[in-house]
Structures are given as C-alpha cells and as structure tokens.
Amino acid sequence: MSAQARTLIKPAVRLWLERLFLFLLVASCIFTFPLKPSYDLDASWRMALGKFFLDGRQFGRDIVFTYGPLGFLMGKTYSGLMFWSLLAWQVTATGFFATLILYWGERLAGWARLGYFAFLVLFGVTYEDALHMLMIALAALELLRRVERPWHWSSALLLLMMATQSVAKFTNLMLAAVAVVTITAFALWRHHRRSAVRLLAWYGGGYLLIWILCGQNPLNLPAYLRNSWHVSQGYQEAMGIITPDQPFWKALVVIAVLAGYILLNVLTQPDRPRSLAGAVILGAFLHLNWKHGFVRSDGHMVGFFYCALLPITAFPVLLDETGPFLRIKRWALVGAGVLCVFGIRDAIPALVDSAHYIFRNRVLTNLQRATHLADTHAEYDQVLARELALYDLPHTRVVVGRRSLDVFGYDQASAIYNRFNYTPRPVFQSYSAYTPELAKLNADFYRSDRAPDFVLLKVGSIDGRLPAMDDSAVLYLFTQRYKFILNEKFFQLWQKTGVPVDPAETPRLLERRNLPVGQPWSLAEHNQLPLWVQIDLRPSLLGRLRTFFYKPPLLQLAIEDTQGLTRTYRMPAPIGRAGFIINPIIEDLTAFTRYAINKPERTTRQITLMLAPADRKYFAPTAQVGLSRLNTSTAAQEFFNPLNRERFYMFGVAPVSFESANLPTNEQIDGREVMVIHAPSEMVFDVPRGATTLTGQHGFLAGAYEGSNNTNGADFVIAWSDGKESVEIYRRFLNPKHVAADRGLINFKVDLSPYIGGRLYLRTLPGPYNDMGWDWTAWSKIDIK
Fold first, then answer.
1. Which fold has domain 503-630?
2. In CATH terms, is domain 643-784 a member of 3.40.50.2000?
3. DSSP result, 558-625
4. What digits encode the pLDDT tens for the residues 610-647?
5. What is the reported pLDDT for 601?
6. Are 37 and 80 in contact (CB under 8 A)?
7. Nearest to 455 by CA among 422, 417, 502, 430
C-alpha cells in the first residue's frame, strides 16, 4: 500500500473511531436496566402495565390510562416477569436513539456540537419521558427535511419508531400525530403526493400493525382514543400542584424567548411554508412538555427544561436556518439555555450540582451490570423476594384462590406480588378516575357481570383530596354489591354477594341549588342520612384559556363536622362534577367501614367552596350543586360481629374497644402471633376485681425498620383510670431502626395491686418526633390476672 493511500485512509479510520466512541458514550447514557420492584404508587402502575400486556387486556376497553399497550416498556419495572424482554427492548431502543442523536450531531461543529452532546448525555437522555419526546421531535424534523428529496428506507424506520412510541403513551401519540399530519400537509402543498401517502401509510399502518401485534383489537381504537383524551384532559384539572416561583418565572422567560425565536424564524426564512411546518412541530413539542412539566410541577419540571434545550443546543441546524439575525438568535438562545440549567437546578438541585457524578455512575453502573448479567438478574430477584415477603397476604390468598380480584386504591403491586387473578376496573388506580366519564366507566364495570369476585380495599388519596372523592361511584357500590370478609395488613378483603344490581342504588335527589363560592351550605337538615353531593363549578372564558395554556387554580372544599372541626380538602372541578359521598366524612378505611354498617363517626354540618380571591375570575361565581340520599348498608357487619374475642385471639383477654390509625391486622413477630395496631392507637380493657398483674408483649413488625423502611420509633404506654383519676403506669420507647435491643417482642409486667377495678388503656404513640410513618406497632399475649 502506498504512503498516499495510507494518508487517505487514516483520517477516515479516525473519523469512524470518533463516531464509534461518541455512539458508545451516548448509548451508555441512554441505556437503563429495568427499575427494581417497589411497593409505591408509580412502581405499582408500571408493573401493572406489564401484567396487562401479558394478560392480553384490551386498552380503551379493559384498561384506560395515560399509557398504551407498550407503556410497560417505558415503565420498565421488574415484577418477576419479562426481565430479558425489557433488556432486549432497551438495547434496541438505545441503538436507534443513539444513532439518531449522532446523525443530528454530525451537522454541528465546534462549540455548538460540544454543547449539543453535553446537553444530551448530562440531561436529555436521563429522563425517560423527555427522552422519548426528544426522539419523536428529532425524527419528525428529519422527515420534514426529506420531503423534497428521494425516498430513503431510513424514513420508514423513523416513522415506525414514532409509531412504536405512539403505542407506548398517548402524549407521544399526540405529538407524533401532529408532526406526521403537518409534514404530510407540507408535502401536499409542495405537490409531493407520493411522499404524503408514504408518510401516512408507514406511520398509520405501522401504528395499526404494532397495535395488532400487541394483541389489541383494532375495533377498540376509537374507545382508546376517546378515553385517553378524557384522561389527558382530566389530568390538567385534577393533578396539578402549586408551582414554585423560581422555576416558573425561568420557564416563562424561556417560553417567551423560544416563541420569539420561532416567530422570527418563520418571518425571515426564505422557505416560509417549510419554516411554518417546523414551527408547528416545535410548538407542539414545547407545549406538550410545558404542560407535562408544569401541571404536576414537581420533578416533572425538568422534562420541560430538557426539551426546551433541544432547539437551543441544536441551533441552527434543527430548523435549517439561514439568512439574517443568526447572531441575535444564537445569543438569545444561549441566555435561554442558561435559564434552563438554573431551572433544572431549581427543580432537582442534584441534577446540576452532581451532573458529572451522575453521568459517571450511570456509565460505570451500566458497564458493571452488563458484564455480570447473571449476578444482576439475581440481585433483582433478591429485591423481589424481600418485597414479596413484606407484602405477602397468605390469608387472603387462601380465601381468594384463583377467583378474580381487583385492588381499590393505587397499590396494585399487592395483586402482582401475590399472583392473584388480577381483574382490574378500566381506570385501575383510584385517584385517576377524576372526570364524570372516567368515574362512569368504573361504575359500569362494577355494575356488570365483569365485576370481580373479590376486592382488596384500601381507602386513601393524594394531594390533599378527601379520600371519598377517589373513584367515588365504585366506593359507594362496594357497600351495595360486596361484603366484608377479612382484613390483612393494610387491606380489607371484600367479596361480591351475587345480589343483582338494584336500580335503587342510584343516589336519590333531595335538593338542587346554586351555591356561591365562599358561602357555607348547611347540611344539618339531612346529615342523619348518608349523602352524595355533586358540585358543578364551571370555568370562565379566562379560566378555559388559563387551563389550555397552563392549568386551573386550586379549588378547595371546606367541610365542617357536627363537632365543629373544619378541614379543607382539595377538590378538582371534574371530581366535583362526578360527585362523591359527603356524609359521613370518609377519610380512611376505618371511617369507610363504619359507614358500611351505618354507624358513622363524623358527620357533616356544612360545606364551603373555597377559592383564593385572585383566582375567582377563572370560575363562575356560583356552582350548581345537587344533594342526594344514598342507601344505607350493613356490608361490613362481619368486621364488627366477631369483634374482639375472635380478632384478638392471641390475647388472654380481649379489649372492650379499640381505636387505631389503621384497622388492626394479625401478623407475626419472631414466629409468634401479634395484633398490629398502628400508632396512634388505644385499646381499652376492663380490670376485674382482685386482678393484681398485667402481662404481655409489644414490639414492631420487622417491615417497619428493614431495608428502606424507616420508622423513627414509638411509645408504648399503659394508663389506668377509674373515671375520676388517671395514672400512667408503664411507658417504653422503642426505636428498632437504630437500637437492636428494641427489635422483636419485648415482654412487660405491670403491678396492678394499687388499683381497684377501673380500666386499662394500652396506647401506642408516634414518639418524640410525632411521625407516624412506618409505626407498625404490635401487642401480643395481653393478660390480666
């Protein structure tokens, strides 16, 4: 080989080595191993999506959520299923995404290229939702560039990638659909009809093919699109939280700069139709991610800033810019980029402060796990085994067997861990049934023959809502179609009675009126009855505009009970329109159980719609409200019938009454039966005449302090009272997370000889920190002799 040939080859080899290095660097940042199993809200829906896929559940009919049939690939949480399948998808997607990123990066040079790759490896590819939106945007803008060029096979791959992302999540579908329609319209404008047909055929046909390959019936697509739209629209009204000031104003400035930049680009580029098409795609991309980030303005905010950095770091090639004002645009975008970085830091400081450590650890962790795949898989199985042990429901499994079961609430992990025949209602997490349409889907399911044989019931909510607001129609139907069977850990098990649906179950209207915002409405005339309320407060024109561009303001409902205690709950407007149980006041599982035997603890005296004065302009001045009567129920009678003798079988003597933050459950500590009665709690015992000694055991469930669970201790207190005086006769603080001697069961013995008759009060209190988290306190072998 001649010296001249070697000279020509070396630069080419160096170029490909540089490309290979960049590809591996970007790919090592994009690739992620599946998330480990965890018992929390997000992990529950992620694992549930994988089970729905394997079970062949039909999206749009059986399942209604923000994600589609392939959503489990984005959720990628291991539940004992599909470990290798999730890895295979990650490898495939990583290769495609890294190639697309490099393809665009090759068009940049110098500092611009460095900034583009630095943004992506440090930020852009690290957040799953933003990564997928970024890839759709890059693919769409690449397809726009190719409209007037000969068709290339890689365009089909880009469209199939967009179709795959669209099947994974409805928001992805909205962006991809807007992009494809826009590019098709541009192709038709330029008389490239064949290109237009190919665009629609590859995207639309690809979407339909993937939908069918996922086991989905194409006839369900209209229902899927309609119901996903309800979920998406309801999300912005029901799931918003208060936005911190610092990231908010930075985001507004970034939006203003980018809007000005896009407008200037449309006005100054010689090919205005192409510029307009690019502006539509980029505008939709930014709008969707602005809404995603700042409706639920917590860590989600980084998603907007990540996406806003794309047109900033890919300038000027992203929109093929030429002509005047390039320097002005560049410096304006640099300023916006700096604000984006500070905005990311406002949302999650560690992402900026420790960006290089996160980057390094991500690459090294991926390398270490990839080179020890068997050990990695074993590590995941070990975590899963711990989860299964902590959340095992053996008594429930014996009763349920292979009959169908649903989970009310958002702890679907319990059904997956225990391998129940999980048969979910369409909107399978209760807090998401936040519009009248979605609430009706679930209610219709429970009125039908498809209703499950059993339900694991746990009453709670998010964001300061009244728990009775979540999946409200289904919560009421439980008391009419189901009966209490048992309780285990944090759940009650209810069983379908087989009684046909009675038309009288429907709430019966008592009165309808207009209720001004801020004016109390007394329910005293009716509060001896179980009551259902519907509150329809409509947005003004200004409110609808605000909701479209941002989110509605916080609407609250103040409820005063008959003891004079007032509590304020968040009440998203669509939840008010759907209606919920307003009397009695249901805040937890105990309150619901008492409601289900018509023995309520707290009843409602009056309610008041609350809006901040500055926010009243966004709504009508009055709401249309309806108050209806509900049927009474004895569905939970079995909970109280065997009450204390059978429930407290591990005691030598049963309490005459008890109160607890959660319903008591039977568990084991050190292999011995105990009654878990979560702090703060109280059990009351009669003291027989002549009794001289109280003995027993107390302690914490191991699940309160093992692994990442983090109790900070609780007080075990015993007091005696004869109704005139009260004496504390025993107190012990246990802190098993940090004190090994406080673990297991602790024996105690108390001398009762100074006391005659009266009652003993065995209490657990949340300790000096007044923190009830993980206070799984337990008693056993209580005896009075």
1. Jelly Rolls (2.60.120)
2. no
3. EEEETTS-EEEEE--HHHHHH-EEEES---SHHHHHHHTTT--S--EEEEEEE--GGGGGGB-SEEEE
4. 999 999 999 999 999 999 999 888 777 767 655 566 67
5. 82
6. yes
7. 422
